[in-house]
Write a structure and sequence with these properties.
Blueprint: H1 2-22, E1 47-51, E2 56-61, E3 64-70, E4 92-103, E5 106-111, H2 116-125, E6 134-136, E7 141-142, E8 148-149, E9 164-165, H3 168-177, E10 182-187
Parallel strand pairs: 1-10, 6-9
Antiparallel strand pairs: 1-2, 2-3, 4-5, 4-10, 5-6, 7-8
Length: about 190
């Protein structure tokens, strides 16, 4: 009887682990995240737009969409970020003001959240607005530094703490094409 209880407990734990891990596995539609090819020698990205409800990040030149990428958001994606740890991605006009080549999530571009208005609203409520909101890649590999590389990987569900996540492959392209201080507008 004791062996049966242990076997059932191990089976339950294994099923729960598989279900938890499955949320981070790419779906069939996320294998290739960039939608159309671009001749980058002819392009200067002058704005980034993010459409949270559609999970799309768009690069623009003079108001024309150059390329669209699939992306993931914070674990509570609806609404504007107002408080540190709320899992929301900010909405509004910001700048991509600096970059981190050694990010925990491959590479990252910093979004200038919180702005003065965000800070004032948080202060009035007596909370921290948060910060360190980025566009970043996904995990570097499964199982640490020696694990399977995840260059094309994009989780099937929203998972960040408020950042915008893309595949590492797409992050390389964004990294090369977006210059510091490029405006980013994030829509609901």
């Amino acid at each position: 009887m004791k062996k049966l209880i242990i076997l059932v407990a191990i089976s339950i734990v294994a099923v729960l682990l598989v279900l938890r891990f499955n949320q981070f596995m790419p779906s069939p539609t996320t294998e290739k995240t960039a939608i159309q090819p671009v001749d980058w020698q002819q392009v200067v990205v002058d704005k980034v737009e993010v459409y949270k409800s559609r999970r799309e990040l768009k690069l623009l030149q003079q108001g024309q969409v150059i390329k669209t990428y699939k992306m993931r958001l914070g674990f509570e994606p609806v609404g504007h970020k107002t408080t540190e740890g709320d899992g929301k991605t900010p909405e509004g006009l910001y700048r991509l003001d600096w970059r981190n080549p050694n990010s925990q999530f491959y590479k990252s571009l910093h979004i200038s959240y919180p702005n003065a208005q965000d800070q004032a609203q948080a202060k009035a409520r007596g909370v921290s607005a948060g910060g360190d909101v980025m566009i970043h890649g996904s995990m570097k590999s499964l199982g640490g530094a020696k694990g399977q590389p995840l260059y094309h990987y994009l989780p099937a569900k929203d998972w960040t703490w408020g950042c915008i996540a893309v595949s590492n492959e797409d992050m390389d392209e964004l990294w090369a094409q977006i210059k510091n201080n490029t405006p980013i507008e994030i829509f609901p």
